[in-house]
Amino acid sequence: MSDGSDTLRGAARVKPGPGQESVWDYPRPPLVQATAKHIEVDFGGEIIAETTRALRVLETSHPPVYYIPLEDVVAGALAPSGRATYCEFKGEARYYDVIAGDMRAADAAWIYAEPSPGYEALMGRVAFSPREMDECRVDGEIVRPQPGSFYGGWITSDIVGPYKGEPGTGDW
User: Fold this and answer.
1) What global pTM score does this model have?
2) Is residue 60 part of a domain?
3) Residue 7 lies in a domain
4) Would you state the pLDDT for residue 8?
5) Which of 21, 35, 71, 154 falls 20 to 30 Å from 50 in CA-CA distance?
6) Higher pLDDT, 171 or 115
7) DSSP letter string over 6-39?
8) What HEC string does 47-108 produce?
9) Closest by alpha carbon to 130, among 111, 149, 115?
10) Confidence check: pLDDT of 158 > 70
11) Domain that includes residue 55, residue range
12) Which residues contact 130 (CB under 8 A, 6 or more apart)?
């Protein structure tokens, strides 16, 4: 799919412009990639995570998910929730409530404590769902959350779709 006129089961692929990436050029299985971009997570009126040492996971049809080193997260901002899910590639994800001041966002962050082979770099890192946070930023740009309640991708102006989670994408 290279010319922007392609359709993806009814949704038109957006042709990337200069400096943009298409989620349809991302691989499956997903790729883990280091980034030096400045990543910030705000919740409860506080910056609870900030780093230039994130990893991003790139998977076909999904905006990047950023994984932040745990040492770059404010102490006490994460509390185990008991929820777990399974990714066919990365393994078991354990969920955490995010806490700041009097605010608590249930199941808004996740960690792969023992990732599957090939994804060991995710160990000791946490991903935050931008939907539940006050604001998440990449190099100062406020991200939009990936559509759909299940997904945690971060959409910025340099990422184009369509994205898994939008209406009509349930069979992708």
Assistant:
1) 0.93
2) yes
3) no
4) 65
5) 21
6) 115
7) -EETTEEPPPP-TT-EEGGGS-SS-EEEE--S-E
8) EEEEECCCEEEEECCEEEEEEEEHHHECCCCEEEEEEEEEECCCEEEEEEEEEECCEEEEEE
9) 149
10) yes
11) 31-156
12) 136, 143, 144, 145, 146, 152, 154
Instruction: Retrieve residue 146's tokens.
Output: 């990936």
Residue 82 located in a structural domain:
yes
164 C-beta neighbours (distance < 10 Å), count: 21
Q: 58 burial class (0-12, 13-18, 19+ CB within 10 angstroms)?
A: buried
* Residue 171 placed within a domain: no
Give per-residue pLDDT as tens, 19-78: 999 999 999 999 999 999 999 999 999 999 999 999 999 999 999 999 999 999 999 999
Residue 107, both tokens: 């199941």
- Work out how many domains the chain is built from and give that number: 1
